[in-house]
Design a protein that fits this description.
This protein has helices at residues 2-19, 60-71, 94-105, 124-132, 143-155, 190-201, 205-212, 226-237, 256-269, 271-276, 301-317, 327-334, 339-345, and strands spanning 27-29, 35-37, 45-51, 76-82, 171-174, 180-184, 249-253, 289-296, 321-325, 351-360. It is α+β, with helices and mostly antiparallel strands and 380 residues long. The chain starts with a helix and ends in a 20-residue tail after the last strand.
């Protein structure tokens, strides 16, 4: 009977883990062994960390406390989960760990009971976190990140394919609405963590659209409603321009046959390339609609860029995907057999096709590609 009850409990735990839709569905134990529902943190930006007291990264406690002191009043919570799975570097009871952290780093953020983050006994919370943001690699430009990569490759050349937590002080950033935004490996710079925390603390619909937008290269076979295209373009022409010249000319292609006809020309000229692409439908990343932006031959590129960014963000806010295309433009501008497409755009004398925005309903959800914050410097 006891064995049956154990099996039932394990089954229920598995069901909870696989059916949970939000981080707020989970409960954890605090440092006194009491159950705490993460729903208590709704509306807060969370940084969830697995920690250790005898690790080379242990001094990060100082950075975490500084982050907590700086942003706690604005809505940041840091949730600390000690874990002894990596080199047995978190020995002792949770009370002993807490005493060490308060004595050496004066931490004030919540510290929870010790857990496993990998394996058969891993916390369901961490099963969920890893399912939302798997391992994306160490920063190989950082010496510590490079060393960690080499260390793990010695044991398992394919280690990067596993979403498991690799070491102490891995961090997960969670938005105010419970979405797991980003995962940081222990060697990632705390300055980058802080910058992302700030984005989440001050997030609104505009910032979310900016941070969520991706270039979409696969679309559903579903044209965008005319009314939505109208909204996107209206947002575009509300972009700023030098002395309000508005030098752009915009042409929105809804004619599906026109797209098919010019694609046939492209296919004849690029037969081998098309053959290699099993998903090829048309030369515009398979998008069902196009927004063609034209500028004067003597300038206007900067203003056109501002126009395009407005349109891409407006499209994102409406559940649409976009991709800024240059290759098709070069083909259309240089191939005489495609002249009928340019003619249909009715481009005024003295203007040229500058770029095309593919636009449609996304048929993919690509992950964000790395950005380099080191390119930004603040002059104070």
């Amino acid at each position: 009977m006891k064995k049956l009850l154990t099996i039932c409990c394990l089954f229920c735990l598995c069901v909870l883990t696989t059916t949970a839709q939000s981080i707020y569905d989970y409960q954890v134990k605090d440092d006194a062994g009491k159950n705490v529902s993460l729903s208590a943190y709704k509306g807060k930006v969370l940084l969830i960390v697995n920690t250790a007291t005898r690790c080379g990264f242990t001094p990060q406690y100082k950075d975490l406390q500084a982050l907590y002191e700086k942003y706690h009043a604005q809505g940041l919570e840091i949730l600390d989960f000690p874990c002894n799975q990596f080199g047995s570097q978190a020995p002792g009871t949770i009370q002993e760990i807490h005493q060490f952290c308060t004595a050496n780093y004066d931490i004030k953020f919540p510290q929870f009971d010790k857990i496993d983050v990998n394996g058969a006994n891993e916390s369901p919370l961490y099963t969920y976190l890893k399912s939302q943001k798997g391992f994306a690699g160490f920063d190989l430009s950082d010496p510590t990140g490079s060393k960690l990569d080499q260390m793990f490759k010695k044991n398992d050349p394919d280690y990067a394919k596993n979403p498991s937590i690799k070491w102490n002080f891995t961090k997960f950033l969670v938005s105010k609405d419970g979405k797991v935004i980003k995962r940081y490996e222990p060697s990632d710079k705390m300055a980058n963590v802080e910058a992302d925390v700030c984005v989440q603390l001050y997030s609104n619909d505009v910032i979310e659209a900016i941070m969520d937008r991706r270039s979409i290269r696969r679309y559903l076979d579903k044209p965008v409603e005319h009314e939505k295209l109208e909204v996107v373009v209206r947002c575009g022409i509300n972009a700023p321009s030098a002395v309000n010249r508005q030098p752009w000319i915009v042409r929105v292609v809804e004619d599906q046959q026109l797209i098919k006809d010019v694609t046939e020309v492209y296919k004849k000229e690029n037969a081998e390339q098309v053959k290699r692409d099993a998903n090829f439908k048309n030369m515009f990343r398979n998008a069902p609609n196009l927004i063609c932006v034209c500028t004067p031959k003597n300038g206007g590129d900067l203003d056109a860029g501002l126009l395009g960014e407005n349109m891409m963000l407006a499209a994102q806010s409406l559940g649409l995907g976009t991709c800024c295309l240059g290759g098709p433009v070069r083909f259309l501008n240089s191939n005489a057999n495609a002249k009928f497409f340019i003619d249909r755009l009715d481009i005024p004398e003295g203007y040229q096709l500058n770029y095309i925005l593919a636009i449609g309903y996304p048929d993919e959800s690509p992950a964000a590609k790395p950005r380099d914050p080191s390119k930004v410097k603040f002059i104070k």
